[in-house]
């Protein structure tokens, strides 16, 4: 099969013919229909993720059609499915309690396992998969493996965002944009923070009441003033110290901070304003992925039109364009994300 392989950090991915994947007994082999290009992939491409080594095939945000099914698989050949990026074991205490995103035996394509920047992918533990609704295109469904699901679980399963509450979103890339669309459906009031004017304009057009350029002012102070005390919930979507502390400092007393941006590599340990946490008695949450059992509730919102995921995907690209898209994460990016839908080009 054709795949994009990491041979050297920060170098173009190598387009190669590699062996077809082997189907595991409890898994399936998918013909990849789409795969998102995510900032998490960029962390591996630059060499700041411990599990991503030369020889890896990136790609963890995908959907596909079953072309082979193991004897213990829960899906049949021909079915189209969405795959969460965390393939949980299903048997450990965390999985049995419903918190499968914290599974200690998890397997993650693109991070220690062959990913979906390829024509085909082997997906073990098929109990994690969900059928792709007919109403949802593969390009839009790719985000349901990572960005949209992570944002949804962060807002509803972790921070319990309520209608009428103020939500500040620091970084309006794929997951931040997903959070905006979901928060709007939940009836929250939204503030978007970014450094790209085009992204801020896009956020306003999608329902943000306030859009702040982080280069122009003390955004935490501006948010506290605009909301008469601070945001109720604040979401950090970049994983860097500046936005992390702005997210904490913009909250009102008893506010909830959600960490979604991946603080990896040299940013794994950073200085945090713990005095603000202490004095305002804040709650700190993190969210990574979404348990598979929560898919029906999210898909219901999408299928009924309450959440429109179409603004998330800005570009459908060929596999050969993945390297250029990864390089683009080094600088300011336009609104929306890129999704690989052509695996021959």
TrEMBL record:
Cofactor: Zn(2+)
Positions of the Enoyl reductase (ER) domain: 10-340
Alphabetical keyword list: Metal-binding, Oxidoreductase, Zinc
Keyword Lipid metabolism: no
Key word Oxidoreductase present: yes
InterPro entries tied to this protein: ADH-like_C (IPR013149), ADH-like_N (IPR013154), ADH_Zn_CS (IPR002328), ER (IPR020843), GroES-like_sf (IPR011032), NAD(P)-bd_dom_sf (IPR036291), Zn_alcohol_dh (IPR050129)
MF terms (GO), sorted A to Z: oxidoreductase activity, acting on the CH-OH group of donors, NAD or NADP as acceptor; zinc ion binding
Organism domain of life: Bacteria
PANTHER family hit by this protein: ALCOHOL DEHYDROGENASE-RELATED (PTHR43401:SF5), L-THREONINE 3-DEHYDROGENASE (PTHR43401)
Family note: Belongs to the zinc-containing alcohol dehydrogenase family.
Name of the protein: Alcohol dehydrogenase catalytic domain-containing protein
Organism: Stagnihabitans tardus
Classification lineage: Bacteria, Pseudomonadati, Pseudomonadota, Alphaproteobacteria, Rhodobacterales
